[in-house]
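Case study B.
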Amino acid sequence: MSDPRIAAPPAPEPTDRELLSGVVAGELGALEALYDRYRTMAYSIAYRLTADTSAAEDVVQDVFLGVWRNAERYAEGRGSVKTWLLSIVHHRAVDAVRRRRPTVELPERDAAPPPALTVPDVWTEVSGRLDADAVRAALGALPAAQREALELAYYRGLTQEEIAQRTDAPLGTVKGRMRLGLLSLRRLLGDATAVEPAVGGRR
Amino acid sequence: MSWTCEDVRDAAAAYVIGALERDEERAVREHLAECPNPHPEIAELGSVVSALAEAVDVVEPSPGLRDRIMAAAAAEPRTRASVGSEVVPSTIPARIPIVRSPRRRWLDASPAAWALRAAAVLAIAILGGWNLLLQGQVSSLDRFQAAVASVAATGAEPGSLSAVLAGPAGTPAPRGVGAVRADGTIVLAMSGLAPTQGSQVYEAWVVAGGSAPVPVGSFSVAGDGTGVLEARTTPVAAGATIALTKEPAPGATTPTLPILSSGTVRPPAT
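Model:
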């Protein structure tokens, strides 16, 4: 199965949106290409939350089959395909973590898009260029209580009430820490990448 | 129960980072969809959340995951999303596809119903109910979904091969997925088949190299167009073809053309 055309100029890579259009048209190859492009990030996020290989693979499988079924739900102008996809992965991974708790109501499998979908595409161009070290450094620069609140929420899937219990802080304090933490993170990362943090300030 | 602007502002950070209970999250979403007032805090706080994803340690999924996803997708022809208020209209421009599989409504199930059904049947399959399903009084649809799960599981085993079956290009032909274990056990899940009449059956064949097609097993099909086969044959090598024909009766030794659907047996992608 060797390819004799190795010297041929590479075909232009389809954009994420072109691949998504292919999925809408029912092309399996487009789904496969999208999977190959984002499987590592998707799985890494799912694994970070679930800390379980098979639970993480279930999350990734759920998400890509959801994309296969519902690719037309992606709306232009509400974030890049990457942000959309990874926010669904995060949402599903949080569901998987919370499902382990016996008292929690199970979410609908095909529930409406997660919150990040309703966030305008401000950060995508920035986050696409960020590396893990920059984000870790920014997190590390936050006051410890703010960092802990953000980490328990995003990487552990805890609700704000659970964070309040876990850290023995009043709920209002936890809300304030998350809010200030996000604003500081945005400022730090904005500085680090020399991008105006204001809406519309891309590039 | 309905949330005010003040409630939403108060919960905005938790909302964007995913730290609300799901019912609270729905309340925020509903408020944002209907509220005439701007809520800049959502974008202000939410725009940086996706950056948090960049900080996770990089881990690779197993190679078998791609096969499981592709097998399940191949066995589930895309349906149009059900018309409903939560469905965002697509603004993606139509692209002229080079190879395009025909889009069909499949059994009129909404995506949500499918997801629930698939989840339920997968759970049953995982709990070892696959054989019960084959023997029991369950609908052929559930059997089909269970077969897809079984194909995915079989294809992920070491030494197993899998195949995606499709019809001749350009026809709304039967499609499906199959997996072959090293010991020659074959599991096949097909959809989009015309119902069989009388003694008619669909027969699966393995075609390897220049040798004559080897019959694998047969099944009949009811009105929903799905078919399931689990059979044992001689071990199959990568590169062989699994093909499906319609035969007047079980026990055919040579295929009655045309081949309705076929696919090449491949090892898992790496």
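Chain A is about 60% helix and 0% strand. The remaining cases will be described in the next quarterly update.
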